[in-house]
């Protein structure tokens, strides 16, 4: 077929001249475009003539003749100087020539087996499919303009479709001749930028940087205190790695849409709301990732229904998805989905690997946040169970208190409550830290409150609480002081607690006896009982172990002597002033450090 070979050589020369003209005169597009369209028609005619000539050629007997015919056809196809793609009736790529691979920036054979309409701009896909169907049914060629996007490159092209009958194929094919009209093609033999060693090194460094940023972001203290880990991580990924980022978290056994980050240029309108309201339980890819607990990547989205549907059709279609990546969050706590549009480079297997690690870190952060907040709520509940929100009004007295939690969940408590014929109070704590100690303190506080409604002596109440504590077998003992107020007299019962301090109106400070054995050690309680008279203007002060055991930079304890000095300077002051003065002095002494809980309770006769 010498004539065809000469025609192909001539066409190659004219296409080369057009490239040079496009480069030399970029401002004069119209003449170049007209000439390019004329060459496009010529290419389509030559391709049709080649196929017709092969059909009319005399049949060569034997297998060798058929092989030579197929070999010739392949040579013609590969030598064609313009991009040509052979599609089957469904639009799937069956053959692609080197010129097409060069234009689209993909390796030879990469697009074979993929749906060609997915390269077409979303707004023109329906028209492309209609043209394809028309050419197959009528046999009449069609030519039209459209946009192609692949590997981060966007091309405005003229496409000519021609029906073909391929030797050895049972169904008819379509040849698509593609001629770019708005981009300059890379030089022949040029290496893809993505494949250069420098670019690969930069891509690897960027992935490593992402892991470092993710770890830094998720280890921030605020990520534990507030539910910010998921929004922060998705916002960072949307800024640097994808156009759309979606996080679906599993709640009550089903995936629920939690976060949607749209492209920066996408207004928060109907499309974003549709993505937010779409049910991830209807997404095949989300359920697949949750079931298999491993991620998937689609360098080219070949099924636009994978992410589910919205009112306008498949989500991936309305999002303009070109490439998609899904990884599990944690083990199976949720799914992180990243989507890039057609005009950006697609996700790769290397991206999948790094996103798998990001998803694992994000899952650990979410679990840590949930656990921390759960423990925090438990700690708050325990704190509420050992310290009253407000002190009641005690007739004939003013009351005030300060309570500072320590470095961990502690066990100090204080309370003021009504008793038979008057009012009662208590202050103490279990020896130990953590939730168990706090629960024992709460139990003792509740027992004192309840039993004080029936008993007229605080010492009887203390003994019964001790019996109950020993019976429970907690293994913890509790130091506590309790008192009943009746008029100006206060009857105290101490079980291994520090002595109360009585601040007199002249500034003198007298300590009660205190002492006794902590509750919970022996079945028979050993308490110390004392009755004090609190006159008008005098203040009874009770305090925790954490106050007097506070230490300064030299390791010296705060102690009861320093407490007496501070109280002496507060003679005649209100209870609130007294407890604040003690608090301020201890803060200055220990440079603001608080290790154990600090409780100060003051009752002033009025």
From TrEMBL:
Residues 69-139 form the PAS domain. It comes from the Bacteria. Pfam families: GAF (PF01590), PAS_4 (PF08448), SpoIIE (PF07228). The keyword Hydrolase applies. Keywords: Hydrolase. This is SpoIIE family protein phosphatase.
């Amino acid at each position: 077929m010498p004539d065809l070979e000469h025609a192909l050589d001539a066409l190659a020369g004219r296409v080369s001249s057009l490239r040079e003209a496009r480069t030399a005169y970029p401002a004069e597009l119209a003449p170049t475009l007209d000439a390019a369209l004329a060459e496009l028609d010529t290419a389509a005619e030559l391709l049709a003539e080649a196929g017709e000539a092969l059909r009319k050629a005399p049949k060569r007997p034997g297998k060798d003749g058929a092989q030579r015919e197929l070999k010739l056809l392949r040579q013609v196809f590969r030598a064609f100087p313009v991009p040509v793609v052979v599609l089957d009736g469904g639009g799937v790529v069956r053959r692609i020539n080197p010129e097409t691979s060069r234009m689209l920036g993909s390796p030879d054979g990469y697009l074979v087996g993929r749906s060609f309409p997915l390269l077409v701009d979303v707004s023109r896909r329906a028209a492309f499919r209609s043209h394809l169907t028309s050419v197959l049914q009528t046999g009449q060629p069609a030519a039209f303009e459209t946009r192609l996007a692949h590997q981060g490159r966007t091309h405005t092209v003229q496409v000519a479709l021609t029906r073909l009958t391929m030797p050895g194929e049972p169904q008819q094919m379509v040849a698509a001749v593609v001629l770019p009209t708005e981009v300059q093609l890379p030089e022949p033999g040029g290496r893809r930028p993505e494949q250069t060693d420098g670019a690969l090194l930069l891509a690897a460094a960027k992935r490593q940087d992402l892991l470092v940023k993710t770890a830094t972001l998720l280890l921030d203290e605020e990520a534990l205190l507030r539910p910010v880990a998921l929004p922060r991580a998705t916002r960072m990924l949307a800024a640097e790695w994808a156009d759309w980022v979606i996080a679906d978290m599993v709640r009550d056994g089903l995936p629920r849409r939690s976060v949607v980050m749209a492209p920066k240029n996408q207004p928060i309108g109907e499309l974003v709301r549709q993505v937010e309201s779409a049910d991830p339980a209807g997404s095949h890819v989300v359920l697949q990732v949750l079931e298999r607990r491993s991620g998937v990547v689609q360098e080219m989205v070949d099924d636009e229904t994978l992410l589910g549907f919205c009112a306008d059709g498949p989500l991936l279609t309305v999002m303009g998805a070109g490439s998609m990546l899904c990884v599990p969050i944690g083990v199976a706590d949720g799914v992180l989905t990243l989507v890039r549009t057609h005009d950006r480079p697609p996700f790769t297997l290397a991206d999948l690997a790094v996103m798998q690690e990001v998803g694992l870190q994000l899952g650990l952060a979410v679990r840590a946040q949930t656990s921390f907040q759960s423990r925090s709520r438990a700690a708050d509940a325990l704190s509420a169970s050992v310290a009253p929100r407000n002190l009641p009004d005690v007739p004939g007295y003013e009351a005030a208190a300060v309570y500072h939690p320590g470095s961990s969940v502690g066990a100090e408590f204080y309370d003021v409550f009504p008793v038979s014929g008057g009012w009662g109070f208590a202050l103490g704590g279990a020896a130990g830290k953590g939730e168990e100690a706090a629960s024992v303190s709460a139990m003792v506080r509740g027992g004192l409150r309840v039993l004080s409604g029936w008993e007229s002596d605080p010492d009887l109440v203390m003994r019964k609480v001790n019996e109950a504590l020993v019976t429970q077998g907690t293994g913890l003992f509790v130091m506590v002081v309790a008192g009943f107020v009746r008029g100006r007299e206060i009857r105290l019962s101490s079980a291994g607690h520090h002595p109360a301090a009585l601040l007199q109106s002249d500034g003198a400070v007298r300590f009660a006896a205190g002492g006794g054995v902590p509750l919970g050690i022996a079945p028979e309680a050993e308490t110390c009982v004392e009755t004090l008279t609190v006159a008008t203007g005098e203040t009874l002060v009770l305090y925790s172990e954490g106050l007097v055991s506070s230490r300064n930079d030299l390791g010296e304890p705060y102690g009861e002597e320093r407490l007496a000095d501070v109280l002496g300077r507060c003679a005649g002051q209100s209870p609130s002033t007294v407890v604040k003065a003690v608090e301020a002095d201890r803060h200055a002494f220990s440079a603001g450090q608080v290790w154990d809980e600090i409780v100060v309770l003051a009752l002033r006769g009025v």
